[in-house]
Amino acid sequence: QVQLQESGPGLVKPSQTLSLTCTVTGASITTKYSFWSWIRQPPGKEREWMGVISYDGSTYYTPSLKSRTSISRDTSKNQFSLQLSSVTPEDTAVYYCTRGSTIVTSDYWGKGTLVTVSS
């Protein structure tokens, strides 16, 4: 059974970099045609797809966040990570890591982790 677990600080100060890690069990992040995404949902707002790292290490980002977002992976630990730079209070959200069979789908979800941006 595929399981994903987000981890990282729950509080980040404005202008700093938000860093989260997703630990995957029950599947390999290098399995062909698997896609590993980060999605967030600010309080009271719609979910927003942020970006994805594919099984071969390719990355794709939503245009509005591309300049501040980086997704990487550690295949030895079966983890992938999100970094979002220059955060503001508008980046406060529940952040989810997901697995999909295509770039735009998410079949398995982590429970999500709330990150608050505040001084």
Any descriptors?
119 residues, mainly beta, four-stranded antiparallel sheet
Q: What average pLDDT do the residues reach?
A: 97
Q: What's the shape?
A: globular
Largest sheet: 7 strands, mixed
Oligomeric form of this entry? single chain
Structural class: mainly beta
Unreliable residue stretches: none
Helix share, percent: under 10%
Based on CA atoms alone, the radius of gyration comes out at 13 Å
Number of helices, where a helix is a run of at least 4 consecutive DSSP H or I residues? 0
Helix-strand topology string: EEEEEEEEEEE
SSE layout:
Blueprint: E1 3-7, E2 11-12, E3 18-25, E4 35-41, E5 48-54, E6 59-61, E7 69-74, E8 79-84, E9 93-100, E10 108-109, E11 113-117
Parallel strand pairs: 2-11
Antiparallel strand pairs: 1-3, 3-8, 4-5, 4-9, 5-6, 7-8, 9-10, 9-11
Please provide a brief summary of the model.
This protein is mostly beta strands and 119 residues long. It has strands at residues 3-7, 11-12, 18-25, 35-41, 48-54, 59-61, 69-74, 79-84, 93-100, 108-109, 113-117. The strands form two sheets. Strands 2, 4, 5, 6, 9, 10 and 11 form a seven-stranded mixed beta sheet that branches. The chain has a four-stranded antiparallel beta sheet with strand order 1-3-8-7, with no helix packed on it.
